[in-house]
Every structure is written in C-alpha cells, then in structure tokens.
Amino acid sequence: MIILSIISIAFILFWYRANKNTHQVMLNQIRLSDSEGNGRPSTELNVLQVSDMHLERISITPEELYNKLKNERIDLIALTGDYLDKKRSIPKLVPYLKVFNQLNAKYGIYVVFGNHDYKLKKNDFTTLFKTFENYGCKVLQNHNETIFVKGKQVNIIGIDDHYSNRSDIKKSFVGVEKGFDLVLTHDPSIILQMKDIHFNYLLSGHFHGGQIHWPKPFHLAHMSKEMMDMNMIKGLHYYHGKPFYISEGLGQTSLNIRIGSRPEITLHQILLDIELQKVEKTLTAI
Ligand SMILES: [Fe+2]
C-alpha cells in the first residue's frame, strides 16, 4: 500500500511538471546574415512562424500570445499546419486568428495545412479553409504567391503536407520567377526530396521537438526515421547547403505534456539581398 502511494504521488508530480512545461513558451529568434557581418545594407523580412497549434491541447491563450508578440516587428506571418483535428475546435481557432490580424503584418498571413487538419471530414475541412480566408489568410496548397519587399521579389511557396501524401513540389513551384524562395510546409521530411530544387529558406514543424524527448524523441520516432537518424528534430539545419527550420510547435498532441521540449514561437529575421551563410540564434524564455 505504501509503495502504491509513493508511485501514485511520483506520477502526479511527474505529470504536473510535464504539463507545466507546456506553459513555458519559448520565443526563438533566428537571424540570417552574411558571414562577414560587414554591415552592408540589406532588406529585412521579419517572419513570425507559428506551427502545430493543436487547439485541442494548447496551453497558451490568445491573450497571452498577443501580449508576447505585440512589441515584435512582424512583416509576415507563416502558419505551418496542424491547427486541430476535431470539427468542434474550429471556433477555438478564431480568437487566435484575430490575434494574428492584430499584429498587422504588412505582407499578410500565409497558411499551409498539416496531417492532423486533413483528419477532418470534407465539409468540416472546407469550414476550416473558409475560416482562414474569412480572417484574411492566404491558404497555399501546392502553389505560390509573390510579394515585393522594397522592390525585392519574394516567392512564398506553400507545399502541401508530405506526411499525408499531399505534397507536389513541381506544382508548388509553377510560375515562380527569380527571387527569394521562401518555402512553407508542414513536414520537414520533404527536404529529402528537394536536393535539386532551389530554395533559400524552408519553414516547417510536425515533429514537436519530440514532445516527449526522453530518453528519445518519441513523437518523431514513428514519423521519420531518416530525419531522426540525421538528428534533424528541431531548430535550424542545412540539407545540401540549404537552410531549413523545424519548429517545436505551439500545442501538443495525444497528451498535454512535454518533456525535454517546450512550445515554440519563432521570429525569423531574413536579409533578402545576401547569401545566407551564417546563422545566429538566440533563445528567449517568455
Ligand atoms: Fe503536429
């Protein structure tokens, strides 16, 4: 009986701590600059990336999210999939979309979907799609949009979810002209297919930093053994010389706990008119 009580108390304490981790949102700041740091003038594009909100198990409220981001410089917002997997969660998305609108990103809000979003029935998925459109978001499913940042062409290429076999790289790049190619996609494993495809930077999520990253990244183990073997689980990596980023995501799946990982919001400061050779990363607990 005493042993059972000790085990129960240990489990409760463990669960409490693991759930508390889901409230400790990290603001990761990525700065892409040239290796010389020579102060050459360059055009900045500040991108806020939010991934894997998983509204069924998200610990940060819309108000908290707004307060954490309201003083940041944000030119464009990239949402990289896995918002929910239940129809009843669609209304819960709205206050978060209002927050993204309040941040006044002058180049807009871009959306790609993840494997969980595609669990919705067809009609419910259409409702989700329309909800994004109603709040001014541009949804990219294997296509692209072009913006001009102080005269510099930036191609925003949205590749649909690779994990659920919806990605079409060729179609995504149709019509893309010379410029800075920023790819948005959910599953970073797509880069294994992009060795010969030009892009300047790719933003993704999907792996949740392992979510329960002890003693190994459980959430990732069944998703991409190849990426796990290369230790490409979270953060910034290069594949054949091209940089890509894997967000740990803002919400959780299955259980609302994290061990060895934290929820993440990412600010990418991109300098557009130089080669991306050096990366500086700072982590700020918020
Ligand atoms: Fe996810």
Could you explain how this protein is built, in words?
The chain is globular. It has helices at 2-20, 62-69, 90-102, 122-134, 169-172, 218-221, 225-229; strands spanning 26-33, 44-50, 76-80, 109-112, 137-139, 143-149, 152-159, 180-185, 201-204, 235-239, 242-246, 264-271, 278-285. The protein has seven helices and 13 strands. The protein has a single domain, classed as Metallo-dependent phosphatases (Purple Acid Phosphatase, chain A, domain 2), CATH 3.60.21. The relative contact order is 0.22. The mean pLDDT is 90. A hairpin with a 2-residue loop joins strand 6 (143-149) and strand 7 (152-159). The strands form two sheets. The protein has a seven-stranded mixed β-sheet. It has a six-stranded mixed β-sheet with strand order 6-7-8-9-11-10. By secondary structure, it is an alpha/beta fold. Residues 52, 54, 82, 114, 116, 206, 208, 249, 253 line the site of fe (ii) ion.
Strand order of the largest sheet: 5-4-3-2-12-1-13
Number of beta-strand segments: 13
Name of the level-1 CATH class: Alpha Beta
CATH topology: Purple Acid Phosphatase, chain A, domain 2
Q: So, CATH architecture?
A: 4-Layer Sandwich
Number of domains: 1
The fraction of residues assigned to DSSP E strands is 25-35%
| Distinct compounds present | fe (ii) ion
Structural class: alpha/beta
Question: Which overall shape is indicated by the principal axes computed on the Cα atoms?
Answer: globular
CATH superfamily: Metallo-dependent phosphatases
CA-to-CA gap between the ends?
A: 42 Å
Query: Order of SSEs, N→C?
Result: HEEHEHEHEEEHEEHHEEEE
> What's the rounded overall pLDDT mean?
90
Number of helices: 7
